[in-house]
Amino acid sequence: QVQLAESGGGLVQPGGSLRLSCAASGTIFRIYNMSWYRQAPGTPRRLVASISSGHWSNYADSVKGRFTISRDSANNAIYLQMNSLQPEDTAIYYCVADVSTTSLSPSTTFWGQGTQVTVSS
Predict the structure, then answer these.
(1) Taking a C-beta distance cutoff of 8 angstroms, is the pair 53, 31 a contact?
(2) Could you read off the pLDDT of 109-118 as tens digits, one per residue?
(3) Rounded to whole angstroms, how far apart are CA atoms 84 and 43?
């Protein structure tokens, strides 16, 4: 019922920048927290950044000062501005949203299919 579509990944050199986008669609009453996770090959999926419906944000220590998460609630979208990218940032990045589909239902967590970010010279 709820779809999350990520975009903006690609190949960049160390020190470069990328901006990821995530748009939610489908049966949505309200979106609460939204987050970006990432997963490198052979490693667990880890939280990168999250943002609440009130625009409070949190970041993993490894990306603080380099990444910025933002939210456009009117369009059910979030973004991740990634600066000073390093090879260790290489991963598939996933958009995650906590969504209520009706005014009476609890929230449910939905995941996107991911977008590849590769940082390499």
Answers:
(1) yes
(2) 999 999 999 9
(3) 22
